[in-house]
Amino acid sequence: GLASRVSSGQVQNMVAKNLPWLIGGSADLAPSTMTLLSDEESFEAGSYGGRNMHFGIREHGMAAVCNGMALSHLRPYGATFFVFSDYLRPSMRLSALMHLPVTYVFTHDSIGLGEDGPTHQPVEHTASLRLMPNMSVWRPCDAVETAVAWRHALENERGPTSLILTRQGVPHQARSDEQVAAIARGGYVLIDCDGPPDVLLIATGSEVGLVAGAADALAGEGVKVRVVSMPSTDVFDAQEDDYRESVLPAAVTARVAVEAGVTECWWRFAGPQGRVIGVDRFGESAPAGELFEHYGLTVDHVVAAARDVLGS
Questions:
Q1: How many beta carbons lie within 10 A of that of residue 157, not counting itself?
Q2: How many whole angstroms separate alpha carbon 279 and alpha carbon 112?
Q3: Cα 167 to Cα 2: distance, rounded to the nearest angstrom
Q4: Contact 270/257 with Cβ under 8 angstroms?
Q5: 134 vs 49, 149, 151, 192, CA distance in Å?
Q6: Cβ–Cβ < 8 Å for 122, 116
Q7: Which residue of 106, 159, 195, 280 could cross-link 82, Cys pair, CB 3.0 to 4.6 Å?
């Protein structure tokens, strides 16, 4: 039930104990992004051995410093609210262009931010980062996927990694050892049925729990459902054809993709006969639960969309 920003902070602190060259900080948002290394001092005058950097409210400068540290063979990270990724985009683009292994920790990832309203709700930002060459983007659904996302970021030598994390709590998803191993492939079967599925439900982040609930409801009606969690579309795209076909069989054209953001990039997975449920306009100011209801990010709406693509 942890928010993925919280589980991310726990993973980061565990990693830091064994990776002394992990160093970074936030744009004055460490208590909210959960990126403070608890056993480390601040990097400041008189304490140049500290690993907690306080960049100030200067996201572009933060990313530029991270690029410099990456060129010095450290493993830097920079953190801020996801909507503020716009401010650091030029330096983040250089991370990608120069294949620098910088980890960007972006929290408060969607309309789940709630009452701060549309100025702080990053509905288009995940899609825009997925379009950036060499940028690996992960939007994990729970603590397990968050840990795998951090592992990918620290092993990725080909370019930067963006971790897109929730403010709100997300439910833990039960998995077998085989499924845990498959997370590293970017997309995998989280919930399956006996035999070929009638419908595929695809989601990322906080919406995985939502489609899991819809799968339960549909299964109760006798529908054979497969739930695919896809925390990283770029990593999934890099898998061999046979694996991608095993997860998203071409013969199953009844598909519903769900993400609390713009829908454009999901049509290639949903296909022409599928549906995409998302947010193609700016958000509103209200509690997160009310906003998810307002934008149709609900179990009932996903069930209705599945029935629609099934023609029932």
A1: 8
A2: 12
A3: 9
A4: yes
A5: 31, 16, 17, 32
A6: no
A7: 106
Q: Is 77 helix (H, G, I), strand (E, B) or coil?
A: strand
On whether the CB atoms of residues 198 and 225 are closer than 8 A, the answer is yes
Distant-in-sequence, close-in-space partners of 281: CB < 8 Å, separation ≥ 6:
123
Residue 296 CB partners (closer than 8 Å, separation 6+): 277
Q: How many CB atoms lie within 10 A of CB 167?
A: 21
* Helices H / strands E in the chain, number of each: 13, 11
Length reported for the chain:
312
* 10: DSSP letter: H
β-bridge pairing 275-277 and 255-258: parallel
Kind and range of the H or E element at 98?
Answer: none
E strand or H helix at 309: helix 299-310
pLDDT by residue, tens only, the chain of 312 residues: 899 999 999 999 999 999 999 999 999 999 999 999 998 899 998 888 899 999 999 999 999 999 999 999 999 999 999 999 999 999 999 999 999 999 999 999 999 988 889 999 999 999 999 999 999 999 999 999 999 999 999 999 999 999 999 999 999 999 999 999 999 999 999 999 999 999 999 999 999 999 999 999 999 999 999 999 999 999 999 999 999 999 999 999 999 999 999 999 999 999 999 999 999 999 999 999 999 999 999 999 999 999 999 996
- The whole-angstrom separation of Cα 215 and Cα 73 is 45
Q: Is the overall model pTM greater than 0.70, yes or no? A: yes
Strands 161-164, 199-203: pairing is unpaired
Any long-range contacts for 67-74 (C-beta under 8 Å, 24+ apart)?
67/91, 67/94, 67/95, 67/98, 67/100, 67/102, 69/23, 69/24, 70/95, 70/100, 70/101, 70/102, 71/98, 71/100, 73/21, 74/21, 74/22, 74/23
As a whole number of Å, the end-to-end CA separation of the chain is 34
Catalytic residues: 59
